[in-house]
Amino acid sequence: MKKQVLFFTYYFLVWNPVSSQYNAGSSVAPELRECYNNTALPGITVANVRPPSSLNLLIEYIRKLEDANPTMNARQLSVQIIQRLRQDGIAWINRIVDETLAIPYAASRVESHKFQSLVVQLLPVPETSLQYGELNAIQKCSLHYMISNTIDDYKRLNEQSECARSARYTSRSRRKRDGEEEESNPDAEPIPNTFGVGGVIEQLSSNTSQCPIELGVTYSQFGAIKTGDVLAGIAAGLNQQTVNNVVDNRYAATLVGELAEAAAYQVQPNISLGASGGWNSTINPKYFFLQSNNNLQATDAELRGALDGLYMALRMDSWTSTFTDLKISQIIDMYYSPYEKGVLEDSLKACNRNILFTELVSQDTLNDQLLSFMPYLPTGAISGLTFVNNSYSTLSASAIPALNSYLPSLATSDFSCTGNQYINRVATDLHIFIDSSWTYATVQSILSYILNNIDVNKFGTRYSIYGGSTLNNTVNQTYYLSDFYLQYNQSVHSNETTGFDYISIFQKIEAIGNGQLNNNSYAGGESTIVLFVTRTAPNSEQQNYISGRRPVINQYLPHLSFLVIGSGSQGDYSTVVSNTERDVVIIQETTIEEQLKTYGQDVVSTIKSIPRAVINPSCTSQYNGGTSTFTLTQYVEPQGTNYYRISPNYFHYGGDNRYLKVREQSNGNINICLSRDNTKPDNQSSTCENISGSEYSVDITGYCGGSSASSCSPIYLSISGVSSTARCTDSLCRFPNDIKFTVTLENTGCTGRSIAFTSSPLLIVFLCVLTYFLSGKSI
């Protein structure tokens, strides 16, 4: 009787129009209506128009919300995201309407019912308003679509080709190399636009699609995941409650909720779980096509997301007891790291999904929670049936064995951990010049892959894109990956003048490099890389110009590196790059996705091999500063390694006691290796030392013997994170266990020319007099 009263109370709360949760009804929530209004945001309902559904973008969007709401902690913000930006079960209503009066969408599908129980019964009501900051309307709507689950099973005009193509790009793709970041390049064969009025997919009839589209799914190298379940798990773990002393919201919001929905809909002794699928592309994932069209209440993506969300919820107390200000973006970033990083402990990561189920989830608890939660679901709305007798017990008893039977096959299709113990993050200022005579599909695919694999975010890499002929800024300098998808499109590419003006580009590059050196607050901590995407090699006039400028750049702008994506042969670009075999990638137009990835990965590997620069800001581009001491502050994560290059321009000249010092600043442990010839020094080939809360110091006074800086080798440093016992709360900490350290050059001067000049007045007078006499004059 008690459960019946509780169910009645729940049913009243959900369907009562005065419910406090504005996204718990059947209408599209007011804050989300622009996401279904093609008049307000043209094409927003078309996935092909929105940015990809990738983890990098998901994390970026959440970081923007965290930055826009600095007084909110993760507990508050996680609820805000679920209650304001997620709404499951939204579908198109098959009718044409005046969008000034109504939008033809409503939360009418079966997925909406379980979601209503989540927002009404299992999570608190948001306490304050949500600020969006730099998250613009398109990005906000993209985030909504990424976290809101719906199965679109209408039959489509072009689905014969779609269904066949999606089978090639299943959620399992090739294993990445060298800890690559998440793959995300546009498919060389984009989905045809088969959209009718208002951007809605045209339907042949009411027949069910052979490969329904699953919305609310995000691409990951560890399998497609239902992102809403992951966030629900985080929110429930941070806002733990037991409903009426029976239902644990951590289970109900994740795995138990998915099992209960499947049992309530199928209403049969043998519950069917799982449904695999494939992306339109594993490079630019926008559509996820299911490869079956029946019993889709607990798809593979939903099970993965529910499992991951449950693990996070169950471990949340342990994490937040040590790191009280842990962020949502950090949890997701660590759990799904392609480097298999783990959330503050080595085992808590996506590649361990199957093992974690055995370690964290009790079968008895799972069974009890499923049986307890079933009465809280609007089972009549989900199934269209009236449940009688002891049906909840029967259905619960059949769902658990079905899960245990299906999980091994799900684990087989996903990647397991490789035991990776090496993390090489990229921090670079990347300048890309594009010859638009290449097709948009080829260029966009390769660049998308590159940008997704070099840590484009506020802690790592920033980039700019220019036209190769006009030098127009296609994408202004940014560390937001989403800007690439919003600002660089087919129209922009087609309107850019074809060709590649090497001379103007080199002049532009020198201005950029000099601008960096003349910034008195810029001490490096990143590489600066120029990437040419060109169809033509330099002609003889351009070669002569480049041959004249490259020695000057090498001497005065030693922090610049050049890479080429081009046609012809690698030797054609010998005047542009330092090492044609390493720095030049020859490509051809192609629609083969794996080939596009290979092109992109070749560039990524080279970018990762280029050390970060350490720059004395007092030297400027004129290298006329006197003896000084300067410090660069940096961060490294446990198992991560940062590589640095210190040009002799910054230590060839100086005082009698010149020192290079590295100090660990955060009660962590770091390993420092130094070399004069190995760009990636390590314990096997270099001089190394471990420090914790102390300083590494080396006398570099005698490192350069001659009068020329060009005859002196650079200093190469590697700084590796060994362990961390403190919280890193600085704004530049990507992870809560980052280790802070400083690199200091003490009592060093500046050398830009082949002869070291000092600021000594006596020397200046002597040189003036010498010049006067050599000119044939007399005093």
How would you describe this protein?
With 779 residues, this protein is of the alpha+beta class. The protein has 3 domains: 2-413, no CATH class; 428-610, Rossmann fold (3-Layer(aba) Sandwich); 628-748, Jelly Rolls (Sandwich). 35% of the residues lie in helices and 19% in strands. The strands form 7 sheets. Strands 11, 12, 13, 14, 15, 16, 17, 19, 21, 22 and 24 form an 11-stranded mixed β-sheet that branches. The chain is globular, with a radius of gyration of 29 Å. The protein starts with a helix and ends in a 5-residue tail after the last helix.
Chain-wise SSE layout:
Layout: H1 2-15, H2 55-68, H3 74-85, E1 90-92, E2 105-107, H4 111-122, H5 137-147, E3 150-156, H6 159-166, E4 203-215, E5 217-218, E6 225-226, H7 227-238, E7 242-243, E8 247-248, H8 249-252, H9 255-266, E9 277-279, E10 288-290, H10 300-322, H11 328-335, H12 353-360, H13 363-373, H14 379-383, H15 391-413, E11 428-434, H16 440-452, E12 462-467, E13 473-478, H17 482-487, H18 490-495, H19 502-517, E14 524-533, H20 540-556, E15 560-566, H21 580-583, E16 584-586, H22 593-609, E17 612-614, E18 628-636, E19 641-646, E20 654-664, E21 668-675, E22 687-691, E23 695-699, E24 715-724, E25 739-748, H23 761-774
Parallel strand pairs: 11-12, 11-14, 14-15, 15-16, 17-19
Antiparallel strand pairs: 1-2, 3-4, 5-6, 7-8, 9-10, 12-13, 14-17, 18-25, 19-24, 20-23, 20-25, 21-22, 21-24
Helix pairs in contact: 2-11, 3-7, 7-10, 9-10, 9-13, 9-15, 10-12, 13-15, 16-22, 19-20
